[in-house]
Amino acid sequence: MKNAIQIEKDSDNIVHLILDNPNGSANVMDADFQASLAHTVQQLQEQDFAGIIVRSAKKTFFAGGDLNSLYRVGKAEAGALFEQCESLKANLRWLETRGKPVVACINGAALGGGWELALACHQRIVIDDRTIKLGLPEVTLGLLPGGGGCVRLPRLLGIQTSLPYLLEGKQFSPKKALDKGLVHQLAANEAEMLEAARTFILANPACQQPWDVKGYRMPGGTPASPKLAQVLMAAPAMLKQKTRGCLPAPEAILATVVEGAQVNFDTATRIESRYFVELATGQIAKNMIGTFWSGLNAIKAGASLPDAELAKGITEPVGKVAVLGAGMMGAGIAYACAMKGCEVVLKDVSLEAAEHGKAYTEKSLRKRVAKGRSTEEKAAQILQRIHPTEDVRDLAGCGLVIEAVFEKRELKAQVTRETEAQIGADTIFASNTSTLPITGLAQASARPPNFIGLHFFSPAEKMPLVEIICGEQTSDETLARAFNFVLQIGKTPIIVNDSRGFFTSRVFGTYTNEGIAMLGEGVSPAAIENGAALAGFPVGPLAVSDEVSLILMGKIRSQTIADLQVNGETLSAHPADAIIDRMLEEGRAGKLAGGGFYDYPEDGPKHLWPGLGARFGNASTQPSLEDIKDRLLFIMAIESVRCLQENILRSVRDANIGSIFGIGYPPWTGGVLQFINQYGVRAFCQRAEALAEQYGERFTPPAMLVEYAEADRRFSD
Amino acid sequence: MTTEAFIYDAIRTPRGKGKHSGALHEVKPVSLLSGLLQALQQRNNLDTELVDDIVMGCVTPVGDQGADIAKTAALAAGWADDVAGVTLNRFCASGAEAVNLAAMKVRSGWEHLVVAGGIESMSRVPMGSDGGAWAMDPRTALDTDFVPQGIGADLIATLNGFSREDVDRFALHSQQKAAAAWQRGAFANSIVPVRDQNGLPILEHDELVRPDTSIAGLAALAPAFEFIGDLGFDQVTRTRYPQVEKIRHLHTAGNSSGIVDGAAALLLGSEAIGTRLGLQPRARVLATAVVGTDPTIMLTGPAPATRKALKLAGLSVDDIDLFEVNEAFASVVMHFQRKLGVPDEKVNVNGGAIAMGHPLGATGAMLIGTLLDELEARQLRRGLVTLCVGGGMGIATVIERV
């Protein structure tokens, strides 16, 4: 064991437990910490002391659980993990029931296990710095707070008040924590904090947690109280509406809290450990930790770049960005960049059009201010950064140009030439095309090494992903600079190689097409949409097709056919094609056109178009819900394997992150390729073959998948 | 040859509105039941020592109704110490289950004279006050797709294409039939008015019936389950009914069963005990059945329970002269009729729980009494009682006049 807790005693006979992880820059609940805590308790048992101050020697207070080891723990280790959990909590319990005051001095972020450690202290003092984050984010990684958080927080705040912190992983600032009664004191600095701790200890020589005081009653009542019972009866249904039954963690948290509130503290602790072990050893936590923790961290560290050092060497941020085209995408991109401090030249063919694009940001900011999410002052600053223009000369001095004009090759080529005449030789020219191959577009460029694709998703100011597309001639430096820029504006970059539709649009197309194909087979439209929802997709394939517009879907197909023809190739027909054509014939092109698969009444919520049944029939035998869900999940995963096989995808992690952040693949899966891993590559292959037999050749496993299945190999980087 | 189970008597209290202002709210559940037991004893000049057991249904057997109210009421009624008592809970079928179990006891030959019935004072012990894991334990509720019954009723209506007017019209008929039945004294033989300790009457008729109900009045009522449906319960049903885009919430306080207080008691026994006591058998129990179906839609049990009971009795739907199908919600009965092809003129001819109320633990026993009265009045032979039951269960009892 390496010691992770230094013990010191000061002149007031106060013991200082100084958290100092010997293995890293932040304190985590790893094996060393747990052993150190046990050792500390052992030592303290033999000592006399006035009180305890728990503080950190790191920049942050405590980062939380040891995710790397949790990621590895399997079902076979359930017993050991349970014991480990229980023993950790027994030690924390010893500290809080010793009768001596224990004060947490929180100098920086206290998240997850760190916040749980603080909850086990009688007094929590935090430095008043709004960048300090506090809270229990376990649920976002498919886990629950297993260090007593589900036991102490409800006992502190009451069940109803505590649930949002636990179920949504909401983080909060020190000030908010004070308002909500989650901490007791704020301090201006470290010295003041320690002094406050000392004062508290000397003033409160005997200390008990509220829940250990005789006569304690849970705020808001226990589940047995009729008023709370009413609320709790609806809670599972309300939760399921959000999780669609796909996410075990929030469900387990609700169960832990309610079950734990009906028994004594120690029993509640044990119940929490059992649910924690179930989640931690379960597949979905692995999917989520692997992708949202390990995968995302690796992406941010530049693991997907051919040369991460090159990117790290470029330290200067992009100060001024040009956005060409002030339509919906251009306006959103301008807004996204301005929000993160970039000056933005927003150019369109007329000043009026450019102003119109800026007005989008203005309108949205006004809403934010009205809702109290921003201030007038901040909104004005952001707005001032956007400079609408019709004059191409205003583009001079931009570090990066993002072209977001209509998806027409000719137009894009013209804009490229016109722009390059104004900008510097090292300015990056990025196209926000969602389908057209970058290498082809770069033919219009005088400087193809500077030419790259930056595919934003709509609405650009909200969607977290940017797909970076490398053309054949795109230089590593251009890629590195574009990558840095995406991080600079607070988005997550994935990097793919060039091809039609790249990765995201291509795979997204299989989702909408599969849903539409089902409709053509006579599957109940409600069942298609419900199947998608119950698989965890945020929007059903029919609803999202309406959003995209069937006209656009038709155009992309025509463009593809035309492009392929040039090379003497043909596009194989998809069963969805005929349905889209029929809808277009019927004048039902989607939401903007006033109606598509759905009707959009002015006075109520949208609903499926009743005409669907008459046009496409209602098959007498309907597929199982499992088949509907699997068809959507599988077709996207299979297409992603094809992208990997064709070297369009450059890494598994980018595929996983891109599919969830960009095109709505369900988060519980850990992403398109992780879905295959967690299903079992062999089992996936067999199921795909069965789907191919029943629903069409598009499900036939690609060679790479078969190869992986035979070798019993998982998709990983 | 098996001993046959005969029904010798069937009585009930009138039903009072199940709220603080209801007439029976002042009557303790134990008094409601013990009063009825005393009436049963007097009507039949019963030597209570001869009664083997009292089986009483009660859905919320806690608080005032807790601790085996069947035995407590027997003691309070001054019945002999020899008489045993048991309280059972099969949700809304508890009263019917009590009768069915009594019939089984007699048919087994191990008991000879059994009182069966049920009690529910919904004004005193509100629905749900017994908690229970199905609704109240999140893990259980999540794993089993729990939704309240009203959502199931609306789902049945949605799946069957019933309109709001269809269900309201059904409710209107229930009111009209109940009012007419009361007017012509159809329940006179079975109703035992509730009296106080001085013999002063507290309630002599079903308090809930609204003879002046109109379609327009019913149409004006707000859907009762839309709010909780929107909270999330509607979406819970998607796993089992993905073909439903949106549940149409049609049920209201007007076309759902009323919340009331009330109790019922039947006297069942073998032929031998009847002869010995000089009692005239009124009907025999031909068959009983319970089934389980999808718990989420919850209320489709009556049709399969009926089929199962009829099969046991060797009868077909057409052999049954009258049906009592508990009017938990209008759609439940309409769905039952559609499933089995039962015409309106055979179903709930004297109205039902929509008009008169559904005292959960007692209703099944009340319906058996009501059915028997009407078979006698019409000189018909066979009748069947069926109820939808929580957890997706269904129950049926087939009786035949002797």
Automatic annotation (TrEMBL), chain A:
<feature type="domain" description="3-hydroxyacyl-CoA dehydrogenase NAD binding">
    <location>
        <begin position="320"/>
        <end position="498"/>
    </location>
</feature>
<dbReference type="Pfam" id="PF02737">
    <property type="entry name" value="3HCDH_N"/>
</dbReference>
<dbReference type="Pfam" id="PF00378">
    <property type="entry name" value="ECH_1"/>
</dbReference>
<feature type="domain" description="3-hydroxyacyl-CoA dehydrogenase C-terminal">
    <location>
        <begin position="501"/>
        <end position="600"/>
    </location>
</feature>
<dbReference type="InterPro" id="IPR008927">
    <property type="entry name" value="6-PGluconate_DH-like_C_sf"/>
</dbReference>
<keyword id="KW-0456">Lyase</keyword>
<keyword id="KW-0442">Lipid degradation</keyword>
<keyword id="KW-0276">Fatty acid metabolism</keyword>
<comment type="pathway">
    <text>Lipid metabolism; fatty acid beta-oxidation.</text>
</comment>
<comment type="similarity">
    <text>In the central section; belongs to the 3-hydroxyacyl-CoA dehydrogenase family.</text>
</comment>
<keyword id="KW-0520">NAD</keyword>
<dbReference type="InterPro" id="IPR029045">
    <property type="entry name" value="ClpP/crotonase-like_dom_sf"/>
</dbReference>
<dbReference type="Pfam" id="PF00725">
    <property type="entry name" value="3HCDH"/>
</dbReference>
<keyword id="KW-0443">Lipid metabolism</keyword>
<keyword id="KW-0511">Multifunctional enzyme</keyword>
<dbReference type="InterPro" id="IPR006176">
    <property type="entry name" value="3-OHacyl-CoA_DH_NAD-bd"/>
</dbReference>
<dbReference type="InterPro" id="IPR050136">
    <property type="entry name" value="FA_oxidation_alpha_subunit"/>
</dbReference>
<protein>
    <submittedName>
        <fullName>3-hydroxyacyl-CoA dehydrogenase NAD-binding domain-containing protein</fullName>
    </submittedName>
</protein>
<dbReference type="InterPro" id="IPR036291">
    <property type="entry name" value="NAD(P)-bd_dom_sf"/>
</dbReference>
<dbReference type="InterPro" id="IPR006108">
    <property type="entry name" value="3HC_DH_C"/>
</dbReference>
<keyword id="KW-0560">Oxidoreductase</keyword>
<dbReference type="InterPro" id="IPR001753">
    <property type="entry name" value="Enoyl-CoA_hydra/iso"/>
</dbReference>
From TrEMBL, chain B:
<dbReference type="InterPro" id="IPR016039">
    <property type="entry name" value="Thiolase-like"/>
</dbReference>
<dbReference type="InterPro" id="IPR020613">
    <property type="entry name" value="Thiolase_CS"/>
</dbReference>
<feature type="domain" description="Thiolase C-terminal">
    <location>
        <begin position="280"/>
        <end position="401"/>
    </location>
</feature>
<protein>
    <submittedName>
        <fullName>Acetyl-CoA C-acetyltransferase</fullName>
    </submittedName>
</protein>
<dbReference type="Pfam" id="PF00108">
    <property type="entry name" value="Thiolase_N"/>
</dbReference>
<dbReference type="Pfam" id="PF02803">
    <property type="entry name" value="Thiolase_C"/>
</dbReference>
<keyword id="KW-0012">Acyltransferase</keyword>
<dbReference type="InterPro" id="IPR002155">
    <property type="entry name" value="Thiolase"/>
</dbReference>
<dbReference type="InterPro" id="IPR020616">
    <property type="entry name" value="Thiolase_N"/>
</dbReference>
<keyword id="KW-0808">Transferase</keyword>
<feature type="domain" description="Thiolase N-terminal">
    <location>
        <begin position="6"/>
        <end position="227"/>
    </location>
</feature>
<dbReference type="InterPro" id="IPR020610">
    <property type="entry name" value="Thiolase_AS"/>
</dbReference>
<dbReference type="InterPro" id="IPR020617">
    <property type="entry name" value="Thiolase_C"/>
</dbReference>
<comment type="similarity">
    <text>Belongs to the thiolase-like superfamily. Thiolase family.</text>
</comment>
